[in-house]
């Protein structure tokens, strides 16, 4: 089984990106990240994004795109993703005002995600869902995340398991990756400090060797560095630390 590759979720450097979109991408590429996952496009069109990726020899590991945005302009989203070479379309969360965090809400979300995943699969794209911790809370007899995956077709809804939020939700990330199996296409990697805060990969308490072992076994395609908040150092320095540690482990 081929080992998954490394990418950076650009949400981590969102403040730098807001000041200088292209310049931030150039700094990320210069560090040695081979791919990025998008969280917005800085007002650039598909051709401009495609040109930027080509200039920097960066690959698009995927995007974070809200379910409502997909519903509002499905054809436009499909064209944009194909133009920039992003096969993976990840819904970053489900809004609580539309899907109450109870059994009925998660069942409804599972149906809607399955339907959208079916449409995207027909266009050659792959829909995934990115968890936080709330999906691990019980919603009836099962957790919310279990409902999302058990009530949807594995061909229509893949997983982007966020290991930090899984740990926060009381689940061992490696075990849940194995539970998801081949539908765990993407894994968000970030570490957890002693106080439970976000930390650079390799500086906290999360067992990444177990995570990589599980991901490699099930065929995870991308291990994507993301750090929601960077308190110890500026975001661009933080993502460099994560990449340096991945290199030390032979993962990048």
Walk me through the structure.
- The chain has a single domain, classed as TIM Barrel (Alpha-Beta Barrel), CATH 3.20.20.
- The protein is built from 11 helices and 12 strands.
- The protein has an 8-stranded parallel beta barrel with strand order 1-2-3-4-5-8-9-12. The chain has a two-stranded antiparallel ribbon with strand order 6-7. A two-stranded antiparallel sheet has the order 10-11.
Please describe the topology of this protein.
Layout: E1 5-9, H1 14-19, H2 21-31, E2 35-38, H3 46-56, E3 59-64, H4 67-72, H5 74-84, E4 88-91, H6 103-122, E5 126-130, E6 138-139, E7 142-143, H7 144-150, E8 158-162, H8 163-168, H9 173-180, E9 186-189, E10 191-192, E11 198-199, H10 208-218, E12 222-225, H11 235-248
Parallel strand pairs: 1-2, 1-12, 2-3, 3-4, 4-5, 5-8, 8-9, 9-12
Antiparallel strand pairs: 6-7, 10-11
Outline:
With 252 residues, this protein is of the alpha/beta class. The chain has a single domain, classed as Alpha-Beta Barrel (TIM Barrel).
Main traits of this protein?
252 residues; alpha/beta; TIM Barrel; eight-stranded parallel β-barrel; two-stranded antiparallel sheet; 11 helices; 44% helix; globular
Tell me the number of strands: 12
Give the low-confidence spans.
none
Strand order of the largest sheet: 1-2-3-4-5-8-9-12
CATH topology: TIM Barrel
Radius of gyration: 17 Å
Biggest beta sheet summary: 8 strands, parallel, barrel
- Strand proportion: 15-25%
Determine the CATH superfamily: Divalent-metal-dependent TIM barrel enzymes
Q: Into how many domains do the coordinates divide?
A: 1
Q: Helix share of residues?
A: 40-55%
Mean pLDDT across the residues is 97
CATH domain class name: Alpha Beta
Shape: globular
Number of helices: 11
Order of helices and strands: EHHEHEHHEHEEEHEHHEEEHEH
CATH architecture label:
Alpha-Beta Barrel
Quaternary structure: single chain
Class per helix and strand makeup: alpha/beta
Report the end-to-end length measured between terminal Cα atoms: 17 Å
